Amino acid sequence: MTEALARTIDHQRARFPEGLALDSGAVIAPLAVAYRTYGRLNAQRSNAIVVCHALTGDQYVAEPHPVTGKPGWWEAVVGPGRPVDTDRFFVICANVLGGCMGSSGPAEPMPDGSRPWATDFPSITIRDMVRAQKLLVEHLGIGRLLAVVGGSMGGMQVLEWAATYPEMVVAAAPIACAAYHSAQNIAFHEVGRAAIHGDPDWVGGRYWQDGRIPAKGLSVARMVAHITYLSEAALGRKFGRRLRGASALTFLEDVFEVESYLRHQGSTFVRRFDANSYLTITRAMDYFDLAAEHGGEVANAFRGTSTRFLVASFSSDWLFPTEESRALVRALNAAAANTSFVEIATDKGHDAFLLDEPVFHRALGGFLRGAAERVGV
Amino acid sequence: MTEALARTIDHQRARFPEGLALDSGAVIAPLAVAYRTYGRLNAQRSNAIVVCHALTGDQYVAEPHPVTGKPGWWEAVVGPGRPVDTDRFFVICANVLGGCMGSSGPAEPMPDGSRPWATDFPSITIRDMVRAQKLLVEHLGIGRLLAVVGGSMGGMQVLEWAATYPEMVVAAAPIACAAYHSAQNIAFHEVGRAAIHGDPDWVGGRYWQDGRIPAKGLSVARMVAHITYLSEAALGRKFGRRLRGASALTFLEDVFEVESYLRHQGSTFVRRFDANSYLTITRAMDYFDLAAEHGGEVANAFRGTSTRFLVASFSSDWLFPTEESRALVRALNAAAANTSFVEIATDKGHDAFLLDEPVFHRALGGFLRGAAERVGV
């Protein structure tokens, strides 16, 4: 399926024959970075904003998705007149390294073209993803970014951008994330990986050989992850205990609406996402730990920075609770970074960062306008 | 495996040839109820306490488990000198209807002895479980229970006992539970069921035919459930982000200690629990909704009751949050039931009800002593 996608969708890509050296010591060469852009780069090349996507997102931020036909995943935030205003800013979004929408990853052919990387794709880190994006930004002739913006795993990338290339980042907005992945989040990821590994159609990662996909395992992985993206209140409001149809007690069928919803989430996901990519990217998230990368203190990652930060959290997000954003803000303050923090009151859980949240949108829009004024855009 | 267990373990059972009529309309006949007792019934038959077990518990409350050899699951609470003091009280614990430790359930032979019930076992409810326990209690010659006590799904049974047989229950202690199963909890159960259904070794429930068990699916189900039994703080304290061994980036192996722990939880579970039982019992929990059974109001279930209640919750329990216990207490108050409520401050999550929590133990012990004094035990 994913191979079929790779053949039929003509993703826009930058190619880097020299490749990329990874944190693991491995080198991916050549490297491909698939991306989309929105808006126009100004003459001073000073209005570029990189948007970083989350675990199951991709580069199709603000346009219909080429596989599902659904609207872009962040059209509420990126577009003309939106907080990331494409009438004013030049927006770049790359498919992450390890992804399955055209960037180098497990579903893409190995350098010799013989077969997909599959499980031979090297382990990667969030910092590796950012290094690949930096190559793309330079390839586009841009030396400094007005801003880097992203939520969830996208927020982790924002933090790595600001920590690794501070001179390139005027403003950074890490949203609904944390400076590390918690034990509970690692545990949920491990459930998803166990479900994929346990699916006989995963075939040790070689499902590409005869066109199978580990649909059941990947679907279970998506189902459990999806629960963590919502809140108990959101699930309760959306579905409560509503029954699907008859109230008859049945052994096998879906009884409650929330079950059908989750199953649907699982089954549509497997049509657009590669299982080996899911394994690779969840692992990269699990590895993420800014403190460990910087001598045990998050603040060390940002000392001396002139980047301005907007940290945003959502009150009902239990995947990346507000307390973890507060800890991040304390570290930024300890590093004397110029930092704003906003906690958005919402009962929509982690997914709120993708939804219509006017307070969040005003905060982000104002922050980006302020950054633009600061550098004269 | 479960069949092997059923053959090799000589569970103590009561048999009811007349069977049991279920909420679904089906009848299970004959009915078997496996059980254990601790302590001695007094001459007045007034010191009996029923302990109700949780989803994956069984009747081996206060003695080594016959399969795993581990201590009984509630030895912290039930035993000589413990809050449920077996020097003073006669404790009965039955394997729930639908379970896999000797009571009628999917792993037990069908009435004609031809094969296990498997997916032909009827859908059951928490109230059906309690009806089976009532038959056992009467079989033991007991007309009134000093108390019914249980946590999690055990607490749901306590509530059904008090609602269905109020004249038989002097005191009721529903612990770490709620008057209904939330959409989020249903969703987590559905993930587990999807993992079992998706395991080819489940074979549509007929894995007993050639001695297979859906170990991978059941293990994933256990892993995701286990996360919900803990708290983020407990996982963080227990494992944090500790690596298992080398820090090398690997694709397939467990990297973090929390992963090994979860996998171990999954793999040991499948050796003692039947997958079809897991499907049956999780569904019974999902159906649980006292308000729906009583004209839309929980209070209706308890109007006119003379049962005394102790409701206990644990502050970091996110499976059955304190707020749901408070709602239960409000309903009991609206029904003018004599009700005490205690929220235990702990960061150990839902599992705290099984652990060494002195404040909880003092509250429960005092409550049971008070009930005993009230009826002259």
TrEMBL record, chains A, B:
Its main location: cytoplasm. Residues 47-355 form the AB hydrolase-1 domain. It catalyses: L-homoserine + acetyl-CoA = O-acetyl-L-homoserine + CoA. One of its GO terms (molecular function) is homoserine O-acetyltransferase activity. It holds the Pfam family Abhydrolase_1. Signal peptide: none annotated. SUPFAM superfamilies: alpha/beta-Hydrolases. Pathway: Amino-acid biosynthesis; L-methionine biosynthesis via de novo pathway; O-acetyl-L-homoserine from L-homoserine: step 1/1. Substrate binds at residues 222, 351. It is found in: Cytoplasm. Its EC number is 2.3.1.31. Gene3D superfamilies: 1.10.1740.110, alpha/beta hydrolase. Keywords: Acyltransferase, Amino-acid biosynthesis, Cytoplasm, Methionine biosynthesis, Transferase. The active site is at residues 152, 317, 350. Homodimer. Belongs to the AB hydrolase superfamily. MetX family. Transfers an acetyl group from acetyl-CoA to L-homoserine, forming acetyl-L-homoserine. This is Homoserine O-acetyltransferase. It comes from Falsiroseomonas selenitidurans.
